[in-house]
Structures are given as structure tokens and as C-alpha cells.
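Example S7 (C-alpha cells).
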């Protein structure tokens, strides 16, 4: 029987993975709008190379999280979540350093940091304590 904690962690990881896939696709198909939602605006003169790099990074990250979740590779999932914290931390700092940043644009990056830390630690600790952890 799965606990409420296991179900909640699974759901949060699932939402995180799908959110990253969505953000990645958005950066690839609507780079200007995605850039504004990210928290910065850079005059690129129509060259969206940065946005495409960001898009494929997030799309890849979301797909990896989902693949590890659905294949029950919980230790690897925990390691990926923890090691990837450098991405939202750097994103947070980039937005914060932008001259006209909006505080509200920092919250998604802060949430990503907290989710990555909490979920990553859960999967690592749970994996070492209970080898029979099962997804929904």
C-alpha cells in the first residue's frame, strides 16, 4: 500500500517533469513569450539562439525526469534532481542580476530549487531505506 507521502512525491515529480517539457517546448515555439515569462528580456534582434538552447535544455531535463520516474530508477532520479539544482540556482541569479527584474519572476526558480532539493533527497533516502518503493 502506498502512503500519502509516496503518492504526493510521485505527483510532484510527475508535474515537475511535465512542466519542464512544457517550458522547453514553449521556448522552442514561442521564444519571446517564454523569455518574458522566464523573467528577462534581451534584445536579440530576432536571433533566438539563447532561447532555443534554454528550450532544449528544459525539454531534455523534463524527459529525463519522466523516464527515470516511469522506469522506477529512483536513485538515479534523486541524483539527477540534486545535481541539476545548479540550473535553477543559476537561473535565479540571472533573473536577479537583470536590471529591471520583477520579484514575482524569481518565484518559479525558487520553487524549482526547493522541489529539486526535497524530491531529490526523498528519492535518495527512500531508495536506501526501502528498495521496494513502487510508483503509482
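Recovered sequence:
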Amino acid at each position: 500500500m502506498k502512503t500519502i507521502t509516496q503518492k504526493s512525491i510521485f505527483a510532484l515529480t510527475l508535474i515537475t517533469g511535465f512542466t519542464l517539457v512544457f517550458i522547453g517546448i514553449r521556448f522552442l515555439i514561442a521564444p519571446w513569450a517564454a523569455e518574458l515569462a522566464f523573467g528577462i528580456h534581451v534584445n536579440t534582434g530576432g536571433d533566438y539562439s539563447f532561447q532555443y538552447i534554454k528550450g532544449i535544455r528544459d525539454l531534455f531535463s523534463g524527459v529525463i525526469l519522466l523516464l527515470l520516474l516511469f522506469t522506477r530508477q529512483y536513485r538515479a532520479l534523486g541524483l539527477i534532481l540534486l545535481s541539476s539544482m545548479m540550473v535553477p540556482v543559476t537561473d535565479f541569479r540571472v533573473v536577479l542580476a537583470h536590471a529591471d527584474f520583477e520579484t514575482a519572476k524569481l518565484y518559479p526558480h525558487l520553487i524549482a530549487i526547493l522541489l529539486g532539493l526535497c524530491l531529490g533527497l526523498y528519492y535518495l533516502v527512500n531508495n536506501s531505506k526501502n528498495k521496494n518503493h513502487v510508483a503509482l
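Notes on this example. The helical segments are 4-29, 31-38, 49-70, 74-83, 86-97, 107-129.
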